[in-house]
Amino acid sequence: MDKIEHSLLSAMPVQAFSLKLARTAIRMTHTPSWKINKINPDHDLVICLSGSAVYDLDGEKTELRPGMAMLIPAYQRFLGQYAGSGEMLTGVAQHFSLELFGRGDVVGQMNLRRCVKLSNWDVLEPLVRHFRNTPQGTTTTLAAHHQFMVLLLAYLDDALIEWRTAANPQHDQDRLSLQIMLTASRLAADPVGAGGLTEALAAVPYNPDYFRRAFRDRIGMTPQKYRELKRMEFAVNRLGVGLSVKEVAAELGYSDPYFFSRMFKQYIGASPSRYRWAGSSPIDADEIA
User: Fold this and answer.
1) Across the strands, what pairs with 45?
2) Contact 247, 233 (CB under 8 A)
3) Could you tell me if 76 and 58 are in contact, meaning their C-beta atoms sit under 8 angstroms apart?
4) Which Gene Ontology molecular-function terms are recorded (predicted)?
5) Options 2.60.120.280, 3.40.50.720, 2.60.40.10, 3.30.70.2190; which CATH number does 3-163 get?
6) Cα end-to-end distance, the chain, whole Å
7) Rounded CA gap, 187 and 130, in Å?
């Protein structure tokens, strides 16, 4: 699959996802005698901090070691047991569900590696420990949702093999939601490309007018306006590193910097000159407002 699709979730608007934590985090602290044989009604993400364990899911054995994360799908029986050499097995497990536009299970639409070594473990390990050790009551907190979302996205980014796009008449709305996510992410990934919008919509297996309406219903704006928003967000970044308004306008293909400035203010809510990097050269008198 295209590399872009491995970071689709991070490119989507926050309102696209509904993360639900079925319970507070499970603080794993197991001795060599530990064993488990269970089925959970929710997905379960397990992250190991110390020691090791072997899990058996449908006859497939997986060893979980420090820095590794493993997904146990909902309603799948799993067996686990301690596999270390005397060190305590510690980590955290979180039961969750993740829906796309409130219409379908995101995880169920992915082909994932069951267990991965988290690529940014040096950064993620302190967060995992904080998430595990933060005192929790009987209900999950907003902070716990935010922290777990970071960990979940890190796992999905490393584990994603491909998206399941095969036809399934019983889940047409799930397929439509997935196509909207793919399209939105492609638009966000290539804000400068001249044919980005046309190419992204040409790859969609739906009637163009129907898809545009569905996209607007879920994202809150049409594909064209969504791409323009992402272009203006790209412009914010370029202005922030010191480029002039005229330079950014030209980079985005605007022949008229004044028109670019009006579009920027319409989408961002402030003039482009407000976003110039504080360390850049002084703004010229003819700088576009």
Assistant:
1) 71, 94
2) no
3) yes
4) DNA-binding transcription factor activity; sequence-specific DNA binding
5) 2.60.120.280
6) 42
7) 35
